[in-house]
Every structure is written in C-alpha cells, then in structure tokens.
Amino acid sequence: MRMRTMEIGVGFLMLAGAVALVVLALNISGLSLADQGGGYRIYARFENIGGLTARAKVAMSGVQIGEVTAIRLDPKFLVAEVEMKIRDDVDYLSTDSSAQILTAGLLGEQYIGITPGAEEENLKDGDRIQDTQSALVLEDLIGKFLFNKVSE
Amino acid sequence: MLDWIQTLGQNALSRLAAFGRAGQLLLQSLVARPAPFTMFPLLVQQLYFVGVLSLVIIVVSGGFIGMVLGLQGYTILVDYGSEQAVGQMVALSLVRELAPVVTALLFAGRAGSALTAEIGLMKATEQLASLEMIGVDPLRRVIAPRFWAGFISMPILTVIFSVVGVWGGAIVAVDWLGIYEGSFWANMQHSVDFKEDVLNGIIKSIVFGAVVTWIAVFEGYDCVPTSEGISQATTRTVVFSSLAVLGLDFILTALMFGEL
Asked: Which residues of chain A are within 8 Å of residue B89 when distances are taken between CB atoms?
C-alpha cells in the first residue's frame, strides 16, 4: 500500500481522536472553558439544606446563574450558611430576592432557586439573602401528614 | 512424586524466565531508543495497521454497546420514574469502564493477535535473523514501532468508542424512546466529571494499550518458530491479554474509584 494512503489514514485517526476528546470534554462531561471567571459572593441561611452540596447550581427561573461554593454551620444562629458565587453579568438581583432549595426531578440533584423581589436596590458582593426556604425533607413531610391525620 | 515436583519447578522457572525475557524485550526496544526520524515511517505504517484498521470494529461495537445500554437502562429506570437518568448511566458506565475494557479486548483480538502472528512468522521464516545478519537491530526495526503504535492508538480508540457509544445511547433514548433531550444531556454533563471520569478512563486505556501490545509483541518474538508454535502464541496473546486487561481493570478501578 502506498505511504500516502497510510499517512492520510493515520492523520484521520488522530483527528478523530482529538475531536472525540473535545466532544467528551465539552459535551459529555460538561467541562466549560470560560466559566472559571469572576463572580460575586452572596450568602443565605437555611434551616435545613437537605442534600445540597458544594458545586450545586444556583438558578433563577431554571437558568443557571451561579454555583454553591461553600456550606458551613453558623455557630451563632445554629443554622446552615450557604455561600454562593453569582456570575458577574447577573447584577440585577434585588435585595429582597428569596432563595429556595429545590430538587431537580424525583431523584435529581438539589439546587438553589432564586426568586427575584421588587426592591430597587440590588444585591452586592457579601450581601445576604434574608428570605429563604429550606429543602423539602420527606421524613418531615410524612411526619406532618401523620400528625394531621391523628388530630383530625 | 519427585517427578511431579520437578515438573512444577520446571514450569515455575520457565514462567519466570519468560517474564524476564519480556521485561528485557520491553527495555531494549524502548529504552535503547531508535532514532525517531528513521522510525517515523515505520511507526506510521504500524499505526495504520494497528489503529486505523481497528477503527471500524471499534465504532460499530461502541455504537451497539451504547444502544444496548440505553435500552437496558431505560427499561430499568422507567420503573422508578427516573428515565432521565439514562444519560448519566450510559455515559458513566461507558467512560469509566466499558470503553477502556471492551476496546482493549477488541484490540487484543483484532490487532494483538495479528501482531503476534506477523512477528512469529517473521521469526519462523528467519526474517528476524537475516535482519540481524545485515546489521539491523530487529528490536528497533520491528518491535519498537509496533509497540509504540499500540501504545498510541489505544487511548484514541477508547475515546472514539466512548463518544460513539454515548451517541448510540442518545439515539435510542432520545430519538426512539422519547426522553427529553435537554434532561438527558444535562444529567449527563452534571454527573460526568472530566478529571474523575474521563481522564481516569484514558489512563486505564493507556495502561491496557501498553499491556496488550507488550504481551502481543513478546509472544510473537518469543514463540517457537514452527507453524504450531505460532498458533499457540497467537492463542496465548488473546487469552493472556484478555485476562490481564480484566484483572488490571479491577485493580485500577479500586485505586481510582474504590477508595481502597
């Protein structure tokens, strides 16, 4: 076989490998090249974070606008404090926005949903969201339901 | 009784000697490095035979394995009402396990056996000896390019296998079974991590590529130079490299994901 045919074949193999690696990185593992940029941090206290973890997404109307960067226990108020990083271009969250912990699907990951408020002023770096709603814990729900049944 | 013990000892010694010869072969063909410029055309030739010609079987089996995973995953997950998770199931099982292992097994059958038979026949027809006679080191001329070709093409084939498999799974799950496309891909992207999953799969495939080619080349180089010897060597290549791949896969998985 001629050398040229082989070289073309090998070049094609290399190219296919490179393309496949890029597809694997960007399309399948969702590695994005541009999102390691800046952002501003806001905080929120939750009574119960359920299964929320760091790197969970922060979304508004289902559109991702940031991610959870850290979760710690607030020793003064004895509730969980969640630190999240919001993308810089989303600078129009009003100070009375509320944060909820939601679940994507039945068995899906938990994420934070932000509902905008009506205030003129916007959240800045280091601000805190006051109005929060905890994760839905199934055991609590069943407990309440049973309690209601008994008291009827 | 004593005879039996003697056979045992003989076997053990010949195994050990084979291991030693294999290590020597590896060292001599890789560390005693050939000049890269004279090797390059040979390497291209071997990459063509080992890599490009294996592409078809890799693509076809990758597609079918992805499709089967999609179907099986769907029928199980639909019982729990979470059929959106098919995407992450297909992608994770392919990227972590199936792509490296199945590619290595196919590679051992498709390319490894051919390498053994080719080198074995070269030995039987005394081509290797005549190369030595005219002052060309057969390790440099014959063994090293083949080894590098296997080493290079295995990760490439594995990555292609993964992508084609995920694509096959997406065809079945999204186009035929009607899972919502957005949640299929979003779940997959959310759960597959580039470093944890993709890179570890590629590391696995590099290890498998090295082991499979090493076994294939050594069996060919070390075979008894008769037609029977070549057939035995080819069989041994496929059997040993399949066993080595499966065993190593367990060890690598335990190291990477098992927190042992």
From this structure: none
In a domain, A151, yes or no: no
Looking at residue A61, which CATH number applies to its domain? 2.40.30
Q: Which helix (H) or strand (E) holds A58?
A: strand A57-60
Domain count across chain A: 2
Shortest distance between the Cα of B163 and any Cα of chain A, in A, equals 6
- Mapping DSSP to helix (H, G, I), strand (E, B) and coil, where does residue A82 land? strand
- Lookup: tokens for B224: 């008894």
> Min CA distance, A89 vs chain B (Å)?
22
Alpha helices, DSSP H, located in chain B: 2-30, 36-50, 55-77, 86-93, 99-107, 113-124, 127-133, 138, 144-170, 181-191, 200-221, 227-256
Q: Is B12 buried (19+), middle (13-18) or exposed (0-12) by CB count in 10 A? A: exposed
Answer whether B190 sits within 8 Å of A3, measured CB to CB.
no
Question: Domains of chain B: which residue ranges?
Answer: 43-253
Render each residue's pLDDT in chain B as its tens digit; 260 residues.
888 999 999 989 988 988 888 888 888 777 766 556 667 888 888 888 888 888 999 999 999 999 999 999 999 988 887 777 888 889 999 999 999 999 999 999 999 999 999 999 999 998 888 988 888 878 878 888 888 888 889 999 999 999 999 999 999 998 898 887 777 887 788 778 788 888 899 999 999 999 999 999 999 988 888 889 999 999 999 999 999 999 999 999 988 877 65
Structural domain containing residue A128: 40-138
Least CB–CB distance from B192: residue in A10, A21, A28 = A28
| Residue A102 bridge partners (DSSP) | A111
Residue A152 counted as domain residue: no
What is the tally of helices (H) and strands (E) in chain A? Answer: 2, 8
Q: How high is the ipTM of this complex?
A: 0.74
CA A83 to CA A79: how far, in whole Å? Answer: 13
Distance CA B25, CA B108 (A): 19
Kindly tell me the burial class for residue B73, based on how many C-beta atoms sit within 10 Å of its own C-beta (0-12, 13-18, 19 or more): buried
- Say if residue A54 is in the same domain as residue A108: yes
Q: Does residue A131 lie in a domain region?
A: yes
- Please tell me the distance from the alpha carbon of residue B131 to that of residue B205, in angstroms, as a whole number: 33
- Same domain for A112 and A45, yes or no, is yes
Best residue in A23, A28, A33 to probe B by mutation, most B CBs within 10 Å?
A: A28
